[in-house]
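thread: overnight batch results

M.L. [08:02]
morning all. the overnight job finished for the chain we discussed friday. pasting input first so we're all looking at the same thing
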Amino acid sequence: MKPILPLALAGPALLAAALAGPASAQMRSAGAHAHGASSLTIAHEAIAGGSRIEMRLVAPGADIVGFERAPLSAEERQRLDAALAVLEDPLAVLGFVPQASCTVVSAEVRFTEDEEHGHEHEEGDDHDRDDDHADDDHGHDHDEHGHGGEGHAEIVADYRLDCPGLDEITGIRLALFQRFDGMDSVDVQMVSARKAGRLTLTRAQPEGRF
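M.L. [08:03]
and the structure it wrote out:
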């Protein structure tokens, strides 16, 4: 998988610790490429007059756009571009409890593909060119491997928000389920200097408390 770039602005150590922690690793392992399972990591930092929030959303491509590979048509490219545009506004897809008036400081959304998978695909292409006697079954299997959409791409979104007047996050509500029909659940992990919490939100229960 392509390395996930650091946040555009240096984030608090809390977010780095949360992303590297065992709970987050378990969430990634269990859900990063499971259809309908996404993860959201939130780090809350108290600042003068309010809070600074850093978040990372990781979702399988199939949950957001219906495929987990590079777009193969203009329609798929348009669908991907539209989804990325929606996710560029975190305030349109989630909200905090208690309700807060937050300002988006930075938002970076990207579609990442499995480089190793792509490398194997290129090796297969070279083999087909070099071996004129490769059978049709091999070529068919290779095509399925290259374009089968078996969970080799994901969408990663990094956000930084400033929320004046927000003392502590006690819960979160997600509008992601309304925006993306393929998204069924999101594992949420929240950390702050005072507490940590974890919950799973679903289409049937899009709001929860830590």
